[in-house]
Each structure stands twice: as C-alpha cells, then as structure tokens.
Design brief:
eight-stranded mixed sheet, 37% strand, homodimer, 184 residues, 3 helices, alpha+beta
Amino acid sequence: MRARWQKPPLYQARGRLVCYVPPDAPDGKNRHLIGRAEGFRLYAKIPIMLLTIDHVGIACRDLGAAIERYVGVFGLAVVSLETNDEQGVREAMLATESGTSYVQLLQPLSPDSPVGKFLERRGEGMHHVGYAVADVSAALAEIGATGIRLIDSRPRHGSMGASIAFLPPKDLGGVLTELVQPLG
Amino acid sequence: MRARWQKPPLYQARGRLVCYVPPDAPDGKNRHLIGRAEGFRLYAKIPIMLLTIDHVGIACRDLGAAIERYVGVFGLAVVSLETNDEQGVREAMLATESGTSYVQLLQPLSPDSPVGKFLERRGEGMHHVGYAVADVSAALAEIGATGIRLIDSRPRHGSMGASIAFLPPKDLGGVLTELVQPLG
C-alpha cells in the first residue's frame, strides 16, 4: 500500500489531512508524526499546537515528603526547586528519563492561594496539566479565536524560565490547562 | 568548568550520581539526560524508571463532545478509539505533535464503573496520569519492593496494545498512576 494523504478515519482537525505511511516507507518532509496505528506511522500535514505533555502539576501538603516519594519510588531527580510568589507556591520539578517531561510538585504558600484552596476543596492530587507549545503568545491568540476563555491573555513567568499561560477548567472539561514555552 | 559526577544538590535518588555538563561539552556514553539547569545538561548515571509522560487520562460525560474540543481547540488528531470492557470505558487517544504523549479521553460505559463513580464524585476532569516505562513487569517488582501497594500485580491490556498497570492514589499523594509499556 502506498502512502497517501487522506482525511482521517475518525475525526478531521481543522481540515488537516493525515497520511498513513507503511512501516517500510521512508520519512518525508513537511510531515508531522502524530502517532502509529496497526504498524503504520500517521503523519499530519500541519503541525499540532501541543508539542508534548510538559508536566503534570500535583498539589501536595508537604513538598519534602512528596519529593522523597517520587525520588524513592520512581528514581526521579529534582532539577529545579523554586518559590513562585505570584502563584503562591513552593514547587519542585522532577525530570523523567526523557528530560522533556516533568512531575511538578506544588505546595501552597498559604491556604488562600489557588493551590491552597484546591487542597481544601479536593485534597492532594493532580492539579493541572501543562503542554509544551512552540510559541505561547501565538497559541493564546489561536485558542482565544476558538471562543475558549483565557485565564492569562499574555504569557507570564513559569518554572525554569518558561513562558506560561493558563486556560480555565470550565471551558476545557474540568481540566486546568497550562501552555508552556520552555526556555530556548 | 569540567563535567564531573557528583551528588545532586537537592536530593539524592537511590545513591544516583548526577553529572552537570556544560553547554559546549560533547554527549557521553552511559549517561541519561534528566534535565537542564542554568545552561547545563544534567545527566544521571543510572536510568530513571519513568521514561516520559505517556498520557493524561481525562474523564468526560460525552466522548464525542470532548474529542471535538481537543480537535477544535488544540488541533490534536484521534489516533485510536477503543472500548475497554474490563475497565468499563469507551476511550479515545489523541496524539500530541511528539507522537509519544497523548490525551486520553474516557467515557464510562456505566455509572458503577470506576470512571463512572469518579464522575459522580468529582465531576469531569483529570482522572489519572500514565508514565511510559521500558518494562512494566520489572517496574512493578521494583515499585512493590519500596512498599507501595499495587492495584495490578501483573500487567494487563491497555490502549493501542500497550501493557499497563495501575498504582493506587492512596500511596501516591492522591494521584492514580498508570505504568505504560507501549507496544514495541
């Protein structure tokens, strides 16, 4: 079977064409790998906004205990430990083997901070998910144009020098969503 | 500054030594990139169990509406749509640009399934996080040895042919955690 551009079998994203490439076919230019299915590689003709999952943000009451857990159980290593006064958190970034996705542990600086209120309401657990994007300002403009509300209309400072912006859970099925443009 | 092996500045994982490599130094063998800090690459001498974030599992009431949202807002493409009777879910996998991390959307098949009960209790939102591992059986043995309880003591079938196992939120700070060994 020859590789060919066609509409995806399930859902079409913004008119994107998807290419099914057999296992033995060479890679092509202007193709963006979006997955594999039944031995075939799937490519899209236009890039996807979300590059990868940058991190999961996990709310905890005791940052030291949470770090010990992820270090002791999974062998992760802490690569950053910061206080973000603007967000009211003390946070640690723990790298996975890939070096491009992280577990972010968040301890609130006070009970009335957003993470403090989250802990009060929901208890410890997953607080948000952060996706890497190439350009957070461009992504905000594109997402805003779809009618989704923005918590941050302009990027702000995140962990490890990244530019970040949050999108509200109300418009995204209950998921607090962060866009992350990592430091170059 | 020369690269050298040393104990990490913050926390030491299982006696792991971490190497700080300046930006202009070549890559070395037997090093596992775990992150970057202040322009330096950070390498560990032993591999980290969690390779990367494979997916975030998101519970939703209406799978079709949730898919439309992730396709329409972020341009993701659906690469798999499956029913998992054992887990009581209808699920979609949507690939990020990397092709190695996914948004997994989960609609319960019945209100008394685990995801059905989660929706009843917490509403729509993040349900679990899945990390890629090289060998899920080996990871389960290693994690079990740390005293963490296991939901699955042996791997079972997950999305897209993966071998998976779940770890309980009670032992992991409120986070339902999945180990994923993707189909080779």
